Amino acid sequence: MSKKIKMIVMDMDDTLLNDELKISDYNKKVISNAQKNGIKIVLASGRPTPSMIPYAKELNLDKEGGYIISYNGANLTDMRDEKLIKSTTLNMDNINFLLKTAQDNSLYFQTYKDGKVIITKENEYSDIEGKLTGMPVVKVENIRDYITEGPVKVILMDEPGKLKKVQEELIPVVENVMTMNISKPFFLEFTNIDVDKNKTLDYLCSIIGINKSEVMAIGDSFNDLTMIKGCGLGIVMANGHEDVKKHAHHVTHCNNTDGVATAINRFALAI
User: Which of 112, 115, 187, 210 makes the best surface tag, with the fewest CB within 10 Å?
Assistant: First the structure.
């Protein structure tokens, strides 16, 4: 590693958070040490913004000038004042296509509005999302009437084997229209074509004057891949997907054994 790390960007679920959805005391301590050494901390997740803010405050990002990248890169928020710096949404043509895709393939449809998880049918996967995010899950009868402007993200959900098949069929259809990622195996996520974590990170680095070669990215899944490949140092968790590990500079410990702290100590703090 030739350059000093000036920024650390990390995924949350299955990366920073353990399986109890908590940040370990040791991860918090090491992240605090990094901030004391002048390193900017950025949380980058597929999660909605409201579900990220409490974790960001737990890490003192509001006091230390950190940032959160939410909805897989659709929104960028400055935690000093919780100001939304950048937002990129889907359009209504995208929504109509995804609603039809869900109907044709008998998939569950989920999106977000006004701090709520919005669904068209009760399902176990949205229940999981509600528990993960702490946001209320609301079923609506006619989602086209409820959503009058494009949201930042839509998720199609079902069991992983079926979802993977649908994803493969959709690749040639949506590759130049929307960004499509699998986060958890039962979440197929769609955002604006210009959205991914790495593009938003590019924008953030440009406005605060940090070179991407000075950024360390830590993640575990396919929606982390562009930032893992695009930063100066890409770290993948031991519990990460094997196809994502192939692109890592280094594989750290798993999310339940302080893999984030281990990587920060080794590569950013040289401990």
Answer: 115
Q: Among 188, 192, 197, 263, which residue's Cα sits nearest to residue 226?
A: 197
Per-residue pLDDT tens for 228-247? Answer: 999 999 999 999 999 999 99
Say if residues 191 and 229 touch (Cβ distance below 8 Å).
Answer: no
- Measure the CA–CA gap between 234 and 245, rounded to whole angstroms: 10
Examine the domain organization and report whether 212 and 140 are in the same domain: no
Give the Cα separation of 271 and 265 in Å (integer): 5
Model confidence, pTM: 0.85
In this structure, is residue 199 part of a structural domain? yes
* Shared domain check, 106 and 49: no
Q: Which residues contact 249 (CB under 8 A, 6 or more apart)?
A: 233, 234, 235
**Nearest by Cα to 8 from 25, 33, 221:** 33
Asked if residue 125 and residue 74 are part of one domain, the reply reads no
With respect to residue 228, please indicate whether it lies within any of the assigned structural domains: yes
Name the DSSP letter for residue 136: P
Quickly tell me which residue has 């109509």 as its tokens: 96
What pLDDT, in 10s, does the model give residues 183-221? 788 999 999 999 989 999 999 999 999 999 999 999 999
